[in-house]
């Protein structure tokens, strides 16, 4: 399949998913009340939010360095600057093309080191494995903290989702058929890519295996665990600060434990293949605030809009700075990412 057509289809699907979930998240919300909540925000919290966000990305880049240093063979040490810039470039690309950012991140770093693309991409996947395990543990802690309330939100969340889907101008049968067709198309694309790849695919898989195995070869395991814990704590702080910024900590008595639950459930929304988590994050954040934490719908929507928009703007600004720092352009990075994943 033509790479441009494949990319276009992926973009259409991701934007459709994001748009649908954004409609679900804001359905019935009084937008004037959302505007009032944002206008009355305590914007003095904005600078601490930016600093904590940058610190979390820096810590993630350092953790990535640990994995890159555990790659087999003799390699030059990857500098923190290149790792940090590549990470930020990946985040920038992800805002427009979900999941292509991970490829762009690996392609940019491999072009500035003696590592192969497949090996670097393997370390990115190793990072994601670490993130999934960490998220599973964190979600378990949410269950322990909130007990039966998590069961209530699950039931109401599913019921509300089904009711909203029934309100769509298509039948449930048609929706299921569309989802099934999408899944079949993705499987067909995967088979086609593997069948056409031959020796190239096998070579890529060997490098990919080395990168993924770096998770087991890391010598500084305490640093790996500590950096992972630090990243998640900073994410919790990044979630708490907007609650304070909007006055929700005072109005609803929300604390760090509530922010921890919101952060973990919101991470599930960010993992869905919509552009930069648009729609999926909004929907899950609003549902969590309303159903689990008892926040009114308008301030809950204001929180979702504020946090997502601020992170989007910050990621774009930092990503552009990283592009200038690396002496490249968005077009060049995305082109190399598509070539690497073709």
UniProtKB/TrEMBL annotation:
Cross-referenced InterPro entries: L-PG_synthase/AglD (IPR022791)
Record field: transmembrane: 43-62, 129-147, 167-194, 222-245, 284-306, 312-333
Species annotation: Rubricoccus marinus
Membrane topology: Multi-pass membrane protein
GO cellular component, one term: plasma membrane
Protein name (database record): TIGR00374 family protein
Protein location: Cell membrane
Keywords of this entry: Cell membrane, Membrane, Transmembrane, Transmembrane helix
